[in-house]
Write a sequence for this structure.
C-alpha cells in the first residue's frame, strides 16, 4: 500500500471513530437532559453485582445486571408459585402489540404460522416493590402455610417434611433476596403507559422484547406471549461511583457483598435508557454522589 493511501485509510478510520463517539455521547447527553422519566431506588435484589473476579478484572466501571421477573398466575390448587405464561400477555394484548393472532393455532397451518412469528421490540412497564411483588410474597406465604399444615397432619411422611422445608426456603428468599422488580405490562405508546402508571418512583418504562408462541391447554392450543428480555440488560457504574463497591468487596469474605448492602438510584431518561445517579452503602451516601444529569 502506498504511503498516501495508507494515510487516507488511517485518517478515515480515525474520523469514523470520532463520529461514532460523538453520536454515542450526543445520545447519552440527550437521554440525560432535563428531569428523568423515572427514578427507581433498587438494591442488590434487583441489580446483580459481579463476583469478586469480575470486579477485580475491570479497570473503571462495572456493570449491574437488572434482575427482573414476570408475574404469573397461581395454579388452581395454589401449591405452585407460578404457572406458565404471563396472564396479562393475552390475545388482546398481543394484538395491541402488533402480533397477528387471528389464526387458529390448533391446526397444522396455524402452528406453522405462529412458529414463524418474529419477536417484537415493544415498551415494557417495570414495577418496583408494588402489587406484583406483594402478590408473589402472598403466594409464597400461602404455599408455606399449606405445606406446614400437611406436614403437621402427617409427621411421619418424609416427603411432606421436605416440601415444608422447600416452601420455607422459598418464602425466606421471597422476603429477603428475590427481586421486587416485575414486568407487569407492555405497549407501544409511552405516553399512554405513563398515564396509566403515573408514579415515576415505582414504575419505569423501558424497551424490551416480546415473543409469541402457542401453548396447549387441555385439548386446545392458544397463542401466548413471553417477555424475552429487556433491550438494555445492565447499567454501568462509572468510576465516580466505584469506591463504595470496592470497599464492600474488600470487607466481604464471600464472592460478592452481602444482599441488601447497597441502594442504587437508577434514572431513566428521554430515550428510556438507564444511568446511575446515586449509590448508598448501609444507609450512607456513596462516593461520587451527584445530580441526575451527571
Amino acid at each position: 500500500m502506498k504511503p498516501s493511501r495508507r494515510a487516507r485509510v488511517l485518517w478515515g478510520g480515525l474520523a469514523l471513530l470520532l463520529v461514532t463517539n460523538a453520536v454515542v455521547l450526543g445520545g447519552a447527553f440527550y437521554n440525560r437532559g432535563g428531569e428523568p422519566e423515572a427514578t427507581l431506588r433498587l438494591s442488590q435484589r434487583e441489580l446483580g453485582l459481579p463476583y469478586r473476579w469480575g470486579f477485580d478484572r475491570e479497570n473503571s466501571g462495572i456493570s449491574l445486571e437488572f434482575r427482573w421477573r414476570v408475574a404469573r398466575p397461581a395454579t388452581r390448587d395454589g401449591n405452585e408459585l407460578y404457572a406458565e405464561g404471563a396472564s396479562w400477555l393475552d390475545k388482546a394484548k398481543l394484538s395491541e402489540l402488533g402480533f397477528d393472532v387471528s389464526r387458529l393455532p390448533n391446526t397444522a397451518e396455524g402452528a406453522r404460522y405462529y412458529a414463524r412469528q418474529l419477536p417484537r421490540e415493544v415498551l415494557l412497564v417495570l414495577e418496583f416493590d408494588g402489587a406484583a411483588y406483594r402478590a408473589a410474597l402472598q403466594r409464597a406465604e400461602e404455599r408455606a402455610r399449606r405445606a406446614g399444615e400437611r406436614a403437621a397432619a402427617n409427621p411421619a411422611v418424609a416427603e411432606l417434611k421436605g416440601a415444608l422445608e422447600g416452601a420455607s426456603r422459598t418464602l425466606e428468599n421471597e422476603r429477603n433476596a428475590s427481586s421486587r422488580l416485575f414486568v407487569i405490562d407492555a405497549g407501544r405508546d409511552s405516553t399512554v403507559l405513563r398515564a396509566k402508571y403515573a408514579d415515576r418512583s415505582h414504575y419505569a418504562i423501558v424497551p424490551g422484547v416480546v415473543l409469541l408462541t402457542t401453548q396447549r391447554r387441555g385439548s386446545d392450543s392458544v397463542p401466548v406471549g413471553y417477555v424475552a428480555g429487556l433491550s438494555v440488560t445492565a447499567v454501568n457504574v462509572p468510576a465516580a461511583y466505584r469506591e463504595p463497591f470496592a470497599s464492600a468487596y474488600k470487607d466481604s469474605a464471600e464472592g460478592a457483598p452481602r444482599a441488601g448492602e447497597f441502594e442504587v438510584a437508577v434514572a431513566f431518561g428521554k430515550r428510556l435508557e438507564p444511568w446511575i445517579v446515586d449509590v448508598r452503602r448501609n444507609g450512607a451516601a456513596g462516593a461520587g454522589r451527584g445530580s441526575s444529569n451527571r
Observations:
- The chain is about 35% helix and 25% strand.
